[in-house]
Amino acid sequence: MLEGGYKIRNQAAIHFITFSVVEWIDVFTRKMYRDIVLDSLRHCQAEKGLLIHCWCIMSNHLHLIISAKNNDLSDVLRDFKKFTSKQIIKYIITNEH
Predict the structure, then answer these.
(1) Separation CA 20–CA 2 (nearest Å)
(2) Confidence at residue 5, expressed as pLDDT on a 0 to 100 scale
(3) Number of domains in the chain
(4) What sign has the CA pseudo-torsion 56, 78, 28, 33?
(5) What is the CATH number of the domain that holds 60?
(6) Per-10-residue mean pLDDT for the chain, 97 residues long?
(7) Which pLDDT score, from 0 to 100, does residue 96 have?
(8) pTM of the full predicted structure?
(9) Domain range for 58
(10) In contact, 28 and 37? CB cutoff 8 Å
């Protein structure tokens, strides 16, 4: 669901990251799906040490300027993408609208 193929070479650095929805579908025009992304980001901040310096959600992609307290940004991003994608797909399948 979320694409963004990055190789983080410096786990301690601040990075500009973009995730796009597969086929650029305008998923984030609906509040429900934006909320899933925001809740996932909050969880990663609280539980995984994600530091968000700046962010922007567009209709079909997300921009982040981020780093990680524990210098494990690749792991945090992997977990964020995996969980968030599964949640969005689950809600798309079960949502009648």
Answers:
(1) 6
(2) 58
(3) 1
(4) negative
(5) 3.30.70.1290
(6) 67 93 93 96 97 97 97 95 94 84
(7) 72
(8) 0.87
(9) 2-94
(10) yes
